[in-house]
Amino acid sequence: MADYVIAIDQGTTSSRAIVFDKSGSIVSTGQLEHEQIFPKAGWVEHNPNQIWNNTREVIGQALSKANITRHAIAAIGITNQRETAVVWDKTTGQPVYNAIVWQDTRTQDIVNRLAADGGVERFKKTVGLPLATYFSGTKIVWILENVEGAREKAEAGDLLFGTTDSWVIWNLTGGVNGGVHVTDVTNASRTLFMDLETLQWDDEILKAFGVPKSMLPEIKSSSEVYGHASDDSLLRETPIAGILGDQQAATFGQAAFQQGEAKNTYGTGNFIIFNTGEEIVHSENGLLTTLGYKLGDAKPHYALEGSIAVTGSLVQWLRDNLGMFSSAPEVEALAKTVEDNGGAYFVPAFSGLFAPYWRPDARGALVGLTRYVNKGHIARAALESTAFQTAEVIDAVNADSGVPLTELKVDGGMTANDTLMQFQADILGVPVIRPVVAETTALGAAYAAGLAVGFWSDLDDLAKNWQEDKRWEPNMDSEERDRLYRNWKKAVTKTFDWVDDDVQ
Question: 245: which strand partners?
Fold first, then answer.
């Protein structure tokens, strides 16, 4: 009897396989980091083959640690970094170029070219997104225009595109030997190509981008059987039955199934998703309109999203580029050596600013420096930047929805940082709540897969699994909150208008 569901979480910095039981509890985990490749300023790449090899290995790790085989697994769920683009040759199975990561900004010239006719909101009514380097559509164009022979191969129908869910599933189901080329509505909604109403690729937009439709995966729901693991896999014959982009998966794992519910994930970046139910809501305040989930033949649920490019990756930068500490959790101890930020504010606009500003011309800035400021103040300013950026997006959510959030459900690795979570509650002025299972991204993918095969019966079944682990209550007085937030907003303005024709 199958007692478990396994989720493959193909993230920005690592790939993981997590085995869950019926209560939504973690049974075992396998995890491997992959290389972050930075060929030029603003360029961020991953090696797709390394990602696939790591995926195979972490599946083995998770099964081994749980002391189980494929026979104990009811279904496989997939979740992934959503906008990272892979283009590969369907006859050889080899990528034609490294995966271009969602943080990559090299496609700004392509964005400008497309925006010349109608501005950055040219396709927003159809796809819910502004033209921006963030989304995968412009990354495909860059590969077609800059990789030798790619355009010709694509026109001949020999190249496939996918976000990393598609890449993993194609390989997991056999690759060149009958691999299934699919994605789900949540990932498709991050390409700039999918019509929010029809949930199909838009031919006119593809024509404007110059991307052959034959490259694109078939769009499926978030919860159905797409195919089975191939015979050379440790999971052979197991159904792959759930796909959710990482932020939608985290929302699903938080059991935020209903209109008006929201969550914030603290990872490489921060991502707030607000469920708008079956209604498509177009933001007036810099948020994205996206798919929340679609279960089988049921109607889709939509969402508003506030995407923040750099939060956890700022801590990585302090560790790897500046050597301020040797492991990411040490940032909290360093921040606690001081009582406040010492007047320093760190705006990590390494990839420009995403929501609510959408300023590709911005670059990172550390401002308010005096000789009093030490590395403890810089560590605290880095943590506080995550909370400040979140507060700005929550303001936009409140303005769009007209119903202010009264609490914030949180998940992701940075929620282990008490100093950050307390400051988040303080700067928002509302409670911040973490669930027992903080790995909600993988859990959401497991839930979607389990629903498709009857492992869980319905959403109520899943909602019963959610349990509160810890709550942070705000305790900062309003004057201090207003002062800090006012200075943060001033700091943000110092990052604007940095990039021009001769400055990258």
Answer: 80
